[in-house]
Design brief:
With 213 residues, the protein is an alpha+beta fold. It has two domains: 112 residues, no CATH class; 85 residues, no CATH class. It is built from eight helices and eight strands.
Length: 213
């Protein structure tokens, strides 16, 4: 799909009486691209196809809101949020990721390919929790060492904590069970839970495109 500025250029030449063949020749656009938009009105063009890089600015406020609240949020998570909020919009992976690279550089969320640590805005009560898992060694009643696995969830606003210990390694079912225990302890569940990648949740990752179980 051509950019909006390219669409306008084609329409200007068409209005001046230039035929399709000569428009293609003058602009260097592909025959397919010119034919596809030749009879489109401006409204039809703007509402059809995938968003171009410059049209992504429509989502800039939503993206910046997420980046400001979660400076280390992954691009794939942002794209999922946009698609949930705007189900009728077709946002291509390629256009989105090119846009995000430029936006992060402009706004200082990426520096020399590394994450920039910034102070986060205070989030409202009950909005977010952070969850993680780990393992440690503890002394048993006989003085011997035993390996213990744990799940921890922390409410971002109050810093209230819940920890679930297990003598066995976590499975997906045990991981979900730990969530249920945490929600019961807190008296509800937060709107958003932030996770580090873990093999219990993530099957694979390719260019920030994450596959979940």
């Amino acid at each position: 799909m051509l950019k909006y500025s390219e669409y306008k250029k084609v329409m200007e030449l068409k209005a001046a009486g230039v035929n399709q063949h000569n428009v293609i020749k003058r602009t260097g656009f592909t025959q397919y691209a010119v034919r596809k938009i030749w009879d489109m009105t401006e409204d039809e063009f703007l509402s059809s196809g995938k968003f171009t890089h410059e049209q992504m600015d429509e989502f800039r406020e939503d993206i910046m809101s997420l980046l400001t609240a979660y400076s280390t949020i992954r691009n794939m998570t942002i794209l999922d949020r946009l698609r949930e909020k705007y189900p009728s919009k077709e946002i291509s992976h390629g256009t989105f990721y090119r846009y995000m690279v430029k936006l992060r550089e402009q706004e200082g969320f990426i520096k020399n390919g590394e994450r920039v640590l910034t102070a986060r805005n205070e989030l409202p009560p009950g909005y977010e929790a952070q969850a993680d898992m780990g393992q440690t060694k503890l002394k048993d009643m006989y003085g011997g060492e035993v390996k213990v696995f744990f799940f921890c969830m922390v409410l971002s606003f109050s810093r209230m904590k819940f920890v679930y210990f297990s003598a066995e390694p976590f499975t997906t079912n045990r991981f979900l069970y730990a969530h249920e225990k945490a929600f019961k302890y807190f008296g509800g569940r937060p709107e958003i839970i932030m996770y580090d990648q873990d093999r219990l949740m993530v099957v694979n990752e390719n260019a920030e495109s994450i596959m979940f179980r």
